[in-house]
Task: structure prediction
Amino acid sequence: MPSVATRRTLGAVREQELHLACQRLGIQHTICLDHMDGALKDVDQEVLIRQVTEIIRTFRPDVVNAIQIRRGGRQKGDFLVKRIKKPLLDRKAPFR
Result:
């Protein structure tokens, strides 16, 4: 893994870091949806909901964790969570 990422390689480096960290923690599956950093707001909400629904149906987890990030003392909700959590739960999609 390169010690310094360039703008062009940042996504791949971060994905490698994620997989390595999860492996060390004993997490068996990690999935990256491959949306460009900073461009998630431009992805159609229905596309995101379908992607997350498919992942949940595939892995059938007992728990789904949604991260809330604290920056500079202020709580900043993860954009993906804010954008799709409520619509996803409101549909009461049959995940199992």
Q: What stands out?
A: The chain has two domains: 1-32, 38-96. The two ends are 38 Å apart (CA to CA). Strands lie at 68-71, 74-77. The mean pLDDT is 77.
